[in-house]
Amino acid sequence: MSNFKVLRAVEMPKVHWTGHPFVDAGLAALAAGVGVRRLEDLVPMHLQTACEKLTRILLSDQALGIGVEKSFLSSSMSQLFPNSEFVNPSPWSVKLNDGKRRDVRKLVHSAALIPAEWQQVIDEAKNAIYKALQDDLQRAQRCLQSESGDEICFACGELRPSDAMVIVRKDKMPLLEGIVNFYPAFAYGVRICGLCALAVRFLPFSVLRTGEGKRLWFLHTQALSVASIIAQTYGWEHFDRAVSANKVLDFFGSWQTAGDAGTVLYVLCELLERFRDQLWDIYLHPLPTTAYLFSNDNRGGYIQALPIPNELLTFFAKLQSYSTGAFRRFWRELLEVSPNLSGKKRKERVSFVKLVALRILNMKPIVGVCLDDNASKLIGGWIGHRFYLQEVLGMPLERLAILERLGIAIAQSEDAKKLINELRSARGGELYGVLLSYVRRGWLKHDEFYTLLPPNDYGAAGEIRDILLAVIYEWQRCRERGEEFPALAERAELTPDETLARIQQIGERLLKRLSNFKRWLGRLQMARTTAELRGVYLTAVRHGALSFSDFVFLAPLGSRQTPWLLRDYLLAFLFEKVREELPELGVEAGVEEDEIAVIEPEQVEIEGGET
Predict the structure, then answer these.
(1) Residues 149, 174: contact at Cβ < 8 Å?
(2) Is there a contact between 208 and 234 (Cβ–Cβ < 8 Å)?
(3) Which residues, in sequence order, are bridge partners of residue 374?
(4) CA 214 to CA 208: how far, in whole Å?
(5) pLDDT exceeds cutoff 80 at 49
(6) Nearest CA to 149 among 125, 170, 165, 132?
(7) What is the spatial distance between Cα 13 and Cα 164, in angstroms, rounded to a whole number?
(8) What is the number of other CB atoms lying within 10 angstroms of the CB of residue 33?
């Protein structure tokens, strides 16, 4: 029997995503600070280097408020870590000759010479912050150096040694209960591992401000390339520039946009514009991403989640890949608020950006709100809107192609102005009649009419009207600029479903068996009540042009909208078949039943020799 023991290689713990938004955002900033591309590659030495960079920025005179107008730590940072070592004003106070205590940082700002007593207070306050960071660093390194433990961290779920755990409250972890000075309801705090505690120290480098309201927010995603670029660009580099220029530090918020949703979308567009090579594939195959608006000050915690649909990221990537110009136009015209605007115009622009950005983030139709009828203009450009309809709203390509051809036909017609005004003013059920008139003109086929206005989608008419106007406005813009309209080239073959196939069969029988077809068609058009509509169908049933099952199909009981929708499908089919014979105006109403002649079906031989 062998006396040799098998030695198992012990693998040290690795840094990984936790699922906790604040911890993950901090980890992304930490990784960005040391240039690591994978969290798994972080080692204790990286933590040391990152802490040195953090200390250099957050303990700089510009962050402390020494020699500049205000202190970043005692103002903006109080929204993240109230009463923490960074924010607490007590260590910075000195007693003056009049017996009053003042913040030494403000005194230094106006003093020509710093007394030794003041300098001692400054050094001691800095050392307190430095020591707190060092304690967190040592616990974090301990987590990466221990292969086992006896306590589970509530943030990352890992088993950690007891000496690597720490109790945190609101002053060190946003939205927890209790702070250092007092414990509401005797809130004890939460024990987390030193690695998670250290990660949250880096949260300020991932935090941004919104456009107009200046609220704090950050992006939570486990795509490190996205999260680290945000931290590097708008965190580390932004703070470094402020320190170098001896300016007051604050979270980045210089966005030319408005609203919470507007800021989030603006950032996503700007990132794709500036870092396309690094981020394009991530946008095309995105991971779950959420923007969090929050506050952690002493007035009370607040957080709001804004989930970012994967479809939006894919849409931005595909649009930019198709046309950089179209991407920029969509981004700028829909989300940008020019700093040159003021007064009423700025207020109107801010309202528009807030509205359209919120609709985009919620994956709702936006074409209607982007139509400027007074200027006959489509805000954002047709290419961007077409990609949004296809990628975000899921509109089939063949439907978009139909609408493009129809919109161009309307724009090129001799009475385009009249038809455009008709489209603008039509409401509800009137739009079905407007689209039927396009079938009569030969611009639309019956199966295309059915595709645009499918059964049980009674809100489609309004969207179709908006898209048609968008195509028309963009076609006019291209013509004025001498550009070619970017139309879809392919014409897809439409396959009829069961409902349309039944309509086609019924229409064919009516065309074959009704001799005074135009009179019957006139009555079908002019029917204004369900009873009148059923009367028209009963006339055809009486003379053998419709079967009983056809009648029940076309005029079902218990439904108010279905008979009229099926009537419009039937009219579209009949208009297309006999277009050349139809009069230019409407058909005269009030025709009597006896005036409708019916072609009798041919006699056929049946079983038994009878005919």
Answers:
(1) no
(2) yes
(3) none
(4) 9
(5) yes
(6) 165
(7) 13
(8) 23
Closest-CA residue to 72 (of 209, 188, 173): 209
> For the segment 382-402, what is each residue's pLDDT rounded down to a tens digit?
999 999 999 999 999 999 999
- HSE of 513 in the Cβ direction (CA atoms, 13 Å)? 18
State pLDDT tens for residues 164-204: 999 998 889 998 864 444 444 455 678 999 999 999 999 99
Cβ neighbours for 380, distance < 8 A, ≥ 6 positions apart: 329, 330, 333, 334, 366, 370
Contacting residues for 555 by C-beta, under 8 A, at least 6 apart: 530, 533, 534, 537, 563, 566
Kindly tell me if the per-residue pLDDT of 153 is higher than 60. yes
8 Å CB contact between 525 and 585: no
- Convert the pLDDT of each residue in 558-607 to its tens digit: 878 899 999 999 999 999 988 755 554 343 333 333 334 444 433 333 33
Give the residue-averaged pLDDT of 526-545. Answer: 92
CA quadruple 231, 388, 364, 572: dihedral, nearest 10: -170
d(CA 368, CA 424): 11
pLDDT band at 113 (very low <50, low <70, confident <90, very high): low
The per-residue pLDDT for range 312-324, each reduced to its tens digit, is 999 999 999 999 9
Three-class SS state of 292: strand
Q: What is the pLDDT of residues 240-263, one digit of tens each?
A: 999 999 999 999 988 899 999 999
3-state SS class at 586: coil
Q: What does the DSSP assignment read for 118-174?
A: HHHHHHHHHHHHHHHHHHHHHHHHHHHH-S--SEE-TTT--EE-GGGEEEE-TTTST
Per the CB < 8 A criterion, the answer to whether 30 and 40 are in contact is no
Question: If you compute the radius of gyration of the chain from its CA atoms, what whole number of angstroms results?
Answer: 35
Distance (Å, rounded) from C-alpha 519 to C-alpha 9?
A: 92
pLDDT in tens, 511-530: 999 878 888 999 999 999 99
Nearest 5°: phi and psi at 294? -155, 165
Question: Are the C-beta atoms of residues 570 and 554 closer than 8 Å to each other?
Answer: yes
Give the type of residue at 21: P
Q: Which of 9, 17, 42, 10 has its CA nearest to residue 158?
A: 17
What's the CA gap between 556 and 507, in Å, rounded?
A: 18
Please list, in sequence order, all residues whose beta carbon lies within 8 angstroms of the beta carbon of residue 62, skipping any fewer than 6 positions away: 68, 72, 242, 243, 246, 247, 248, 249
Give the list of residues 6+ apart from residue 252 with CB closer than 8 angstroms, or none.
208, 209, 234, 235, 238
Side chain identity at 407, as an amino acid letter?
G
- Percent of the chain having pLDDT more than 70? 88
How many angstroms separate the CA atoms of 496 and 149, rounded?
Answer: 66
